[in-house]
Structure formats: structure tokens, C-alpha cells
Design goal:
5 strands, globular, alpha+beta, 106 residues, single chain
Length: 106
Amino acid sequence: SLKLLNRKHYKGNLSEAIAIVHLMKMGNLVFKTIHDTGCVDFVTIDKHGKVNLYDVKTMSRRRSGKRKGHYISRLRSPLQQKLGVNIIYVDVDTAEIQVVQHGRRA
């Protein structure tokens, strides 16, 4: 069988698809960026006309150490902080979604 995507890319693509469905079900228009790398995965417009920026992260748990089993939190880059990018965490095994809303930093 062909290995078309490595596991990390597969899980990332799946996380983005789950996030798109979640955002659309909430009544958002969702616009996906065309860049594979960058600080934003989606731009949305909600039903009130508010524009939001999102970066999607696949939830992962620590495999060892004192905090084994705890979710790993990802920090926003300085540019993401400046732009007010929100983080969406997706658990691909359960389709659980956590949206972390952030404000824009001056």
C-alpha cells in the first residue's frame, strides 16, 4: 500500500477538517488559507460580521514524566499574539474540540 501522508500530516489534516465542521455548525463562514505553513489556518466571519483568526492544533498528551497523560499546551507566536489568533485544539480520536479565544495584544 502507498504511504501518501505521514501520520503527523494525516492527523493535522484531520484536525483541520474537524475544526472546519465545528466552525460551520456554529454559523461561521470559513476561509482556509492556501499556505501550508503560517500563523493562521482559517479566517472566519461569524453571524454578527466579526472576523476571527484561528490556528488549529492537534491535541496530544505527554507520554512520560511527572505530567504523563496531561495534554500538551501550545503557545502562540509573537505574531499570533499581535494578530489576536485564536487556537483550536482538536482530539482526533474523540473529535473533541477546545477553542481558546485570545484578544489582540497591543
